Amino acid sequence: MNYGLYLSASGVLTNTYRQDVFANNLANVETNGFKPDVPMLRQRDAESVEDQLGFDVSNEIMDKLGGGALAAKQRINFAPGSLKATGNPLDVALIEKNQFFAVQEVDASGQATVALTRNGQFTRNDAGELVTMTGKRVLDNSDQPIVIEGPGEPTIDSAGNVLINGQPIAQLQVTSVTDLDGLQKRGEGLFTFKGEDIRQPVNAETIDLKQGYLESSGTNAITAMMNVVAASKAVTSNANMIRYHDQVLDRAVNTLGRVS
User: Fold this and answer.
1) SS3 state of residue 171
2) Dihedral sign for Cα atoms in the order 67, 256, 236, 9
3) 212: burial class by Cβ within 10 Å (0-12, 13-18, 19+)?
């Protein structure tokens, strides 16, 4: 088999992966608090190096070509998005990039766990609970859902206090994450820790929220579109290389190999 076919095929696969990631980022350009993914690639070693076959099967020229490219560990870009004013008294935006709101997530078995989100677009459900726009209960510092009772219009101040008629009834739990690489996405704008729960609640005096604002998506529409186009072109280029290698093989077998 032509070695170039394998290299070109790896280019098609890895750039298709990049294209999918960039397309997902672009699709979430209007999602509040969305953090774009960064697809990572790594060079694959030549077969003799990867399988530690030694010098018996080593080929100096082939080894220099390497073994193509592979998808590497995907990263999340946690850079803060721009703030947009909404005027909604229950909308709040986080300023620090390593801070998150704590919400309650219930799995299929009914077990409640804590998840994190950057989307501070909150509302009140029929039970009077403060929830996200997808229905996740917002938690206080005791990991309990925040219930807004009584008449009056609820508001949230810059310290995360939930107020009714100017009187505090609860405080949003804002969590500070020391190692952002330890977070993984769960869908619906939620994050959880990959391993052991290492949440570190931030003291109230260190919480800095922007009331009446929301954090925009971290995706830049123009950059995301350019990334999608570039990845698509890379897929096409590698696919064309596969076709060229196939044509070379055809010529080698059916033209150069013909016995006159």
Assistant:
1) strand
2) negative
3) middle
